[in-house]
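Field: COMPLEX_INPUT
Field: COMPONENT_COUNT = two
Field: RESIDUE_TOTAL = 382
Field: MODE = joint
Values follow.
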Amino acid sequence: MAAKNPSNRMEIRLAGEGGQGMILAGIILAEAAAIYDHKNATQTQSYGPEARGGASKAEVVIDSGEIDHPEVIVADVLLAMSQEACDKYAGNMKKGGLLIVDQERVGRVPSNRAIKVPISRLAEESSGKSITANVVALGVLVGLTGVVSREAIAKAVTARAPKGTEEMNRAALSAGFAAADLVGKKHAHKS
Amino acid sequence: MAAKNPSNRMEIRLAGEGGQGMILAGIILAEAAAIYDHKNATQTQSYGPEARGGASKAEVVIDSGEIDHPEVIVADVLLAMSQEACDKYAGNMKKGGLLIVDQERVGRVPSNRAIKVPISRLAEESSGKSITANVVALGVLVGLTGVVSREAIAKAVTARAPKGTEEMNRAALSAGFAAADLVGKKHAHKS
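Field: COMPLEX_OUTPUT
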């Protein structure tokens, strides 16, 4: 059993609309951490009235030690794929937490430190299918945070990709990594 | 907001091996409850070392009121799709809880009250694909417990079925309902 080390805990919230694949993204991220990076991970969805309104949210907790509480308490990372998701969850983040938004869908951000990436456009451009936006988003998130290794997320994406879509999903993930590299540099220059 | 009513809480554990679709089954069951039956639901996976050994487990909590704790504490229902899953989790069930096993894969059960259904064989026979065993299992579980309505689970299965597999999945679900009706009757006769 891994040693208990609470400082290692990373709380990630992926939020958007139904059909954007947030739940699958959460599963892939948790599997990358647990199966390929040998950490512990939990992955949770809570469905209430907002699920019937079309909102979708997945929560992932990753820790090298044991995980007592499987849900996000205060997020280290928020991915917001809709304006509603950004408005709803941006207030529940750690100080210095990372907010990533899909620039195509989120016009108003609560802080100039938010990372805006044209995620759905990159999905279209890299893979020809907007449905891969969740995988582009995983590429951005992992590229910026290193919460799991790039190798682990690539393996987890491929393992969950429906037959015949592996290539398309790999392209989407690479586009996400590339965007992270560019954004990361831009931020480094600014500071 | 629905009234708090702890006696309504149903804790369901779906356990088997990776590739048997336990996680997807958990998502479908939670969505049936929340989106189509207007209850609250949570769905959780915890991945530890056993995930790397190939075990897979999904937990679903359904309540008409609010859900404080998203994980299964003591299961009301256990679906065991492998001998390992049965051995590991059958001890953590409520008295009078319902244990459903895939008769094709689980030889030893801890109680003569366990419900044995040839789930993977029914999947093959009804849909031609053993991959639908998770949907057959949902049909059995919902048919026996009524934890969500048959209509809700049918809608949730169809909404999550990959394009072109809707018919196959509906057939698998119907086979599960039929098995539940048969098993239910047999049990009623026994007692």
